Amino acid sequence: MNTITTRTPGFREAAAFEWTKFSSLRSTRWTTAAVGLLTVAGAVFVGLSGSLQPDDTVLGGSLTLAVVALMIAGVAGALAVCGEYSSGTIGSTLAAVPRRGRVLTAKAALLAGVLFPLALVSCTVAYVLGDAILEDGAYAQGEPFPALLGIAALFAVVAVLGLAIGTLLRHSAGAVTAVIAVMLLPSLFGPLFGNLQRWIAGATPTAALEKLTQTSDASAEAVGSLGAWPSLALVTGYTLLLLLLAARSLHRRDV
Amino acid sequence: MIEARELTKRYGDRTAVDRLSFTVRPGLVTGFLGPNGAGKSTTMRMVLGLDAPSSGTVTVAGQRYDRLGAPLRVVGSLLDAKSVHGGRTVRRHLLGLARSNAIPRRRVDEVLELVGLADVADQRAKGLSLGMGQRLGIAAALLGDPEVLILDEPVNGLDTEGIRWIRDLLKSQAAQGRTVFLSSHLMSEMELTADHLIVIGRGRLLADTDMRDFIRTNSQGGTRVRTPDDEAQRMRALLESRGARVALDATGGWRVTGLGPSEVGELAREHRLAVHELTPVLSSLEEVYTQMTRSSVEFRGAETPYETEEAFR
To answer: Transmembrane ranges (chain A) (predicted)?
Structure first.
């Protein structure tokens, strides 16, 4: 009876579904645009105002606002799933793609696939702008390559981290708060933990970003002596762990 | 075909659906009736794999829903018309669903045309009226040209023209050999649309039967007899002398129980009484249903022990 004869849908179709949903909302389009625009705007602001520490690098200074952009990337990740719960579309999404692990993987792939190139381009543009505006030779240059690739990867990872948190918590407000808490609180309250600070604050995505951008904030006292790339690996590691937990919870829960 | 076997859903110590077994067959419109809180929506959610049964199984087209390769091409569902993101346009909402199941893009325009939303295809969903939202939900259900349709309260928010439209649509879908399973609290509507009924109360099956049979069996109808005014009292006396119970019908004339139309007709001829109307009267589905579910209404309180048999008497 069914007149539609095409291939059995798989991951590709699930990903196309997620892309259609993602790209058809103003809110997600603007949130994503904000990630790129903020980074670039930060470089222009810092360059024109010259507001960086004497021991800072051009790369670190240009990417001053990347911390905020990174937070927005995490929020975008959380909203990619919490928006489905608040609007009620989660039911029709899971009726269309009953393999829940596939839905989550498709969302993660979409977020990573959007944020990696976006962050790579915007951070590179920010660096080039910052470099052009800042006074030559006044600051150490910093090593833009391959750090910029790592920074872009970090944006992708943090968006997926937001997705995992959002899937576990389901409610937008709670998930956004949790994402911001993960990004900010360890640095704010780190000093309370004494010697543990280096470990707690050092494990955050924010610390990984500071190390990758080689800013003067990334001192061993504040964020530990773990190198930039191992930090990125650490954040990626616990993000994947949380994503697994999220997948398990999504699989077990009633919608 | 939808088959539920001993389907059970418990929330803590509350049992929402209790060992429910039924089969929804193709080629018919099957109505799913029950008072609020009877477990209709929970059952439908379990059919669609959204909620997991505590025990028991349910299959659609012979398979568990989550094992269907392309579910939207087998089962179309409408659970909650609000399950559309208000910021998305009508077309993009459907397009996303179409992509998820490798349904050709042209189907989006076809179903938009079919439900009468082609003119608002590029509007955001939040601007839609309740009735248009319902039509969009039905468009989504029809998108994959599915052999099974599962609709929870599909006429909610539709105007009379919309209700008639959906009634015709569901009947034609069933006539094409599809399985149509719909719940509604509008019994008058169910009476006009459904061929078969599954009635539940407190999560348990109360009846699974042909709709006409259901009304006939549970009916306290009788025969409406209308005579010229000056012969009405003679007719009444005559009928009562033969053991019938005679009451005034709401529409005028007598409502006779205990004697069928043929007996009343014969009797009238023997006694040379004129008969202006002789109509078999069945209770409406609403009357029967109200009577049946009275004992199983959720808020009845726990001190009344619930018996399934009771509901049939």
So the answer is: 30-52, 58-82, 108-129, 149-169, 176-194, 228-247
Query: For B2-210, which CATH superfamily applies?
Result: P-loop containing nucleotide triphosphate hydrolases (3.40.50.300)
Q: Does A6 touch chain B (CB under 8 A)?
A: yes
User: Residue written as tokens 């004494």?
Assistant: A194
Q: What global pTM score does this model have? A: 0.87
Lowest mean pLDDT among A197-206, B73-82, B262-271, B282-291: B282-291
Interface pTM, i.e. ipTM: 0.92
pLDDT digits (tens, 9 = 90+) for B42-75: 999 999 999 999 999 999 999 999 999 999 999 9
| Residue A14 to residue B100, Cβ atoms within 8 A | yes
A-B CB pairs within 8 A amount to 115
B23 touches chain A (CB under 8 A): no
Give the residue-averaged pLDDT of B80-88.
84
Which of A13-22, A179-188, B232-241 has the largest mean confidence?
A13-22
Mean pLDDT of the region A171-177: 96
Question: CA-CA distance, B226 to B273, in Å (whole number)?
Answer: 11
**Nearest-10 crossing angle of helices A26-49, A66-87:** 170
B73 contact A CB<8A: yes
For B222-281, CATH gives 3.30.70
Q: Identify the CA nearest to B179 among candidates B22, B28, B3, B4.
A: B28
Q: Would you kindly state where each structural domain of chain A is located, as residue ranges?
A: 11-252
Mutate to test the interface with B, among A23, A89, A92 (most CBs of B within 10 A): A92
Q: At what angle do helices A11-23 and A26-49 cross, to 10 degrees?
A: 70
Does residue B307 surpass a pLDDT of 90?
no
Residue B69 contacts residue A14 (beta carbons within 8 Å): no
Note whether B84 contacts A: Cβ–Cβ < 8 A.
yes
Return d(Cα B273, Cα A187) in angstroms, integer.
100
DSSP classification of residue B61: T
Burial class (CB in 10 A: 0-12, 13-18, 19+), A109: middle
